[in-house]
Design brief:
This protein is of the alpha/beta class and 310 residues long. It contains ten helices and twelve strands. A six-stranded parallel sheet has the order 2-1-3-4-5-10, sandwiched between helices. A two-stranded parallel sheet has the order 6-9. A two-stranded parallel sheet has the order 7-12. The N and C termini lie far apart (41 Å). Bound molecules: guanosine-5'-diphosphate-beta-L-fucopyranose.
């Protein structure tokens, strides 16, 4: 990409898309095409085709998706598989039809088998059964990365894919039912502190291990891949480090300055026991993450306080 390249960031208002826009602007890319959900419904193929014919972007970051945490995935599987398949099919096909220069598709490390060898290498894909709590989303994301791979193979389109690990950062979803664990615990522990609650309830056993990458690091990794990678296989983006949900809750408790108790609700599901990704492929390409977990959580907590000020 050069600084005046026309770049479409699909999903620019979300956690991931807004970070990619911040990163592109910081690096001096000033010709961005941004359409909100109301301006462009990516589920409607005719609207997507007309948009691409009119705007003719050169580069596309496909960050738009229907996303959510373990509970949202469990209660809305049909919405997760349908909306994500429609978004990715419409954008990838329109990108092909309009011969755009390059597209980066963003998936998630939940595409890997529940009991994949850890750390998870890219070639573990489709080597075993999926984690049932996010199977619908995972199948949609697997379809998206395979669609990119097959359009590259059949037509020579320069469509690449990356699989970020669990992400967190500003503009995250803090709704306690549909969010991921990081924003949920930041909000729950903050509200317990403010309201002098004796304890905070964490879902599951606290035993699962998760890897967390700050979304500003993820965005930097995506711009790096757009400029430096043209391979057929997808690329993991992560830190290669993991933490238990229990220790994550204790870390957030320390950062927030909450002195109540952390208790566990074992009626809620744990989901996959581990999903730390192997980041050697990306490291060997020349990119590593920067934002350490403690600093990242501190950054998001300060953003959350500012954004919830009355
Ligand atoms: O982040 P999370 O919802 O999704 O849950 P996954 C991670 C772990 O945190 C699970 C536990 O073991 C949850 O039970 N947890 C504890 C909580 N307290 C809470 C809470 O208050 N809220 C939430 N949400 N979790 C997601 C997939 O899996 O990974 C998505 O469902 C996506 O589709 C994402 O792929 C990257 O990490 O289990």
């Amino acid at each position: 990409m050069n600084k005046s390249s026309k770049i479409f960031v699909a999903g620019h208002n979300g956690l991931v898309g807004s970070a990619i826009v911040r990163c592109l602007k910081d690096k001096g890319y000033n010709n961005l095409v941004l359409k909100s959900h109301n301006e462009l419904d990516l589920i409607n193929q005719k609207d997507v085709d007309s948009f691409f014919i009119k705007e003719k972007p050169e580069y596309v970051f496909l960050a738009a998706a229907k996303v959510g945490g373990i509970y949202a995935n469990e209660i809305y599987p049909a919405d997760f598989i349908y909306e994500n398949l429609m978004i990715e099919s419409n954008v990838i096909k329109a990108a092909h039809d309009n011969k755009i220069r390059k597209l980066l598709f963003l998936g998630s490390t939940c595409i890997y088998p529940k009991f994949a060898n850890q750390p998870i290498k890219e070639n573990e894909l489709l080597s075993g059964e999926l984690e049932e709590t996010n199977e619908a989303y995972a199948i949609a994301k697997i379809a998206g990365l395979e669609m990119c791979r097959f359009f590259k193979r059949q037509y020579g389109d320069n469509f690449i894919s990356c699989m970020p690990t669990n992400l967190y950062g500003p503009n995250d979803n803090f709704d306690l039912n549909t969010s991921h664990v990081m924003p949920a615990l930041i909000r729950k522990i903050h509200e317990a502190k403010v309201n002098n609650k004796k304890e905070v309830e964490v879902w599951g056993t606290g035993k699962p291990l998760r890897e967390f990458l700050h979304v500003d690091d993820m965005a930097d990794g995506c711009v790096f891949l757009m400029n430096n990678y043209d391979g057929e296989q997808h690329v993991n983006i992560g830190t290669g480090e993991e933490i238990s949900i229990k220790n994550l809750a204790l870390l957030i408790k320390k950062i927030v300055g909450y002195d109540g108790d952390i208790v566990f609700d074992s009626k809620m599901k744990d989901g996959t026991p581990r999903k730390v990704c192997d980041v050697n492929k990306l490291n060997e390409l020349g990119w590593k993450y920067n934002i350490k977990l403690h600093n990242g959580i501190d950054n998001v907590y300060r953003w959350y306080i500012e954004s919830t000020k009355k």
